[in-house]
Every structure is written in structure tokens, then in C-alpha cells.
Amino acid sequence: MKTTRAKVRFASLAGVAVVGLVLTGCSSGSSASNDAQNGQDSRGPITYVQGKDNSNVVRPLVAKWNKAHPDEKVTFKEQSDQADQQHDDLVQHFQAKDANYDVVDVDVVWTAEFAAKGWLTPLTGKMKIDTSKLLPATVKTATYNNTLYAAPQTSDGALLYYRKDLVKTPPTTWAEMMADCKIAKQAGIGCYAGQFAKYEGLTVNASEAINGSGGSVLSKSGSPDVDTSDAKAGLQNLVDAFKDGNIPAEAITYQEEQGRTAFEAGKLLFLRNWPYVYSLAKTDGSSTVKDTFGIAPIPGKDGTGASTLGGHNAAISVYSKHKATAHDFLEFLESNETQKFFATQGSLAPVVGDLYTDSELTAKLPYLPTLLKSIQSAEPRPVTPFYPAVTKAIQDNTYAALKGSKSVDEAMKDMQAALKTATSSGN
């Protein structure tokens, strides 16, 4: 990750599909603790910071809140649609102790980093929120060192979009999908694309390839585990698909939006992407596949693949002066009504479990049962304040293998070494 609120937001979306890796964080110190306590009883105007709102999800919600809370209005600070830029913007404002960044939207892989640095207000005591109705996996993404630091806001799991007018039954394995590529060639279009540009989305796609082949990025004990035959097989699948043209050459530049645009233009048979694409592919005036695409779980070695668990959380900055208002805004974002709006307006995955079987929602969004299956079979990202070094190790070496500057064996050996360095940096 792993955003439209979606677009790159959900790609930013991304991260390493692995289990464990809980490292000791940087100490926040007493000053951060004092900052977190300040303003917990104070109410007033706040600012909400999030990536580009291309699906027009945030603005209507902010307007609704402001109408009901005229003395505690929320101002929406819109960032770019690039996850890395969003991350860096938040870091800069946290380092400057900016009190005007009250509630911030964080990719699930940033929660531990920001919490470890003492920038997020623990959701305990007066700041506590009810998580009983939420999907357990989403709560884990907002937890660091057994403390909840953010409110799960949206979840995410990968989906396979396919042309149901060309493929009657979606492939259930990677081999079946590659065999179907002959249909794409006959139709004169590209076969498969995901997110293969050198950014966070590549970490997601590489992790899914590795896990979907029976490998893992980290072992169950939390140590790097990519220098194995199964992990290599996953990366080899992607490398081979690029070599034989089943993945179009231009897909090496694709982030979420480039893939979505290509699929909507009828240039791809299959696309791995996030749920937000569903709404846009159905409603965009330029979409040529409104009535001809279907959805399925992403394929793995022997069946459903292992999606990377995506999503975003909302957190309160320790520097906010009006934390009581910020707390109530978090609860507003998690309400059933808001969660339904996220789903219907932006195809964003709810964090409230019951909504996946809500008859009103499933009638409008028939992909929800498939998405829930994707989320339930997803692999979580590592909870570590050193995540930037982890994802860089995966991106650098995966990209080199896809470009042909390293063999798969070399890439995995180098990735293993870089992950060891990254995951030991706190010891």
C-alpha cells in the first residue's frame, strides 16, 4: 500500500503480506505522552488530512458533519494521490508539531511507524472507541504494542477484474489465468496487469505472488524467508509473464490508476486491483466495460490467492488542540451510516463486519461477498516502525527482476539480505 480515496490511496495500500514481525519501537518519551494528554477535553474546529478525494467521498461527509456540528467544523486538507507523498507530508507536519493536522488518514502500514515515534494519540481512556463490531483484522492493523492508536476506517482486499464477455468462467489458479491469455491475444488486447511500477503497489503485488505460490516474505517466527523455492516461484511467475507478453510491457509503469484506465478502455482481459475500481468502471463515462466485466478472487497456485490486506485508519495527532472533537469525528467515520456511504459512493471496503451481508448493500455491490473472502484470506502486513526499509528491500529487488537486470535467484538472495538488515535495525 496500498488512493481515490481510493486510487492511490488503496494502493498505497499496500505492503508486505506477512505475519508477525513486531519490533520494539522508538521511544516516544514523556513529552509525547504529555502532548497526547493535552486537549482531550477540548472541542473546536479541526482539520482532517487525507489523500486526493477523486471519488467524492470525503467532501459530502465533512459537509454532513459540519451541518450537525456548527461549532466544531471540520476542514478537509486534501493531499496528493501519491501514497509516498502523503506519507512524507504527514511526517513533515508531525516533525513540525503542527496542531492543524488534527485527524490524519494513515495507510495501515504507517500506523506502527507513527505510533512508535509518539505522533499518534493512544485510543485509551477518554479517547477509547468501540471496536466490537469491526472486523478483527482491521483492528490489528490499528494496534501497536497492544495499544490501539487509530480507528479502522476502510479495509481492502485484492480483486480480479475480468472480461466476462470473453471469459465465461474466471480462472481460479495462476496457471489457468496464463492459459486464458491466448484469448486476449486473439482479441488483440493485453492479458493481465497489476501494479508493477517501483512504488508501494509493487510490494503488494510481489507479496501476493510470493504468498500465492506457497512462499512467504517472512517465516512464522518473523525472520526473512524469501530465499526459498516457493517464494522464487512466485516472483518467477511475474518475470515469465512479462517475458512472454502475458503482462504487457507498459505495465511496468502501472500504478492503480494506469491499470484501471487500461481495463476500462478495453485493453486488458484481467486486472488485479482494489474494490474502488468497481464503482468507477461502472460509472465512468469513458468506461467501455460497464456491462462486460466480472469480479473474482485473485488466483493462486492451487486456488484462491493470498491478497495483501489493505486499508486505511484514522488517527488523532498528539499535537491536536481539540482532541474531544477529533475523537467524535473518528466515531462518525466508523458509524454504520458512514461505512455504508464509503461502500456505495467509493467502493471502499467497510470495516464493520455485518455490512458484508447487508441486503441493501449487497444488492448495490454484488462483489462484497467476494471481497470479504479476499479480506479473510488476506495476509497482514508487518507491524514495524521500520516498514519503509522492509518495503524498499522488496521493491528494489522485485523491480530489478522484472526489468531483467537481476535473475530471480539474485533478486531473492539480495532481498533476503536487505530484509535481514531492515528487520534488525531496531536491535
Secondary-structure-derived class: alpha/beta
- Average pLDDT confidence is 90
Estimate the helix proportion, in percent. 40-55%
Query: What's the shape?
Result: globular
Tally the beta strands: 11
The rounded distance between the terminal residues' Cα atoms is 26 Å
Poorly predicted regions are 1-28
Describe the structure in your own words.
The radius of gyration is 21 Å and the shape is globular. It contains 18 helices and eleven strands. The two termini are 26 Å apart. It is an alpha/beta fold and 427 residues long. It has a domain at 24-156 and 310-356: D-Maltodextrin-Binding Protein, domain 2 (3-Layer(aba) Sandwich), CATH 3.40.190. A hairpin with a 2-residue loop joins strand 4 and strand 5 (147-148). A five-stranded mixed beta sheet has the order 2-1-3-11-6. The protein has a four-stranded mixed beta sheet with strand order 8-9-7-10. Mean pLDDT is 90; it is low at 1-28. Helix 9 (200-212) crosses helix 17, helix 10 (229-243) crosses helix 17 (387-403) and helix 17 runs antiparallel to helix 18. It has helices at residues 7-12, 29-37, 58-68, 83-95, 111-116, 136-141, 174-179, 181-187, 200-212, 229-243, 256-264, 276-283, 323-334, 336-346, 359-364, 368-376, 387-403, 408-423, and strands spanning 46-50, 74-78, 103-107, 143-144, 147-148, 151-156, 159-163, 190-193, 268-273, 293-296, 310-316. The chain is 42% helix and 12% strand.
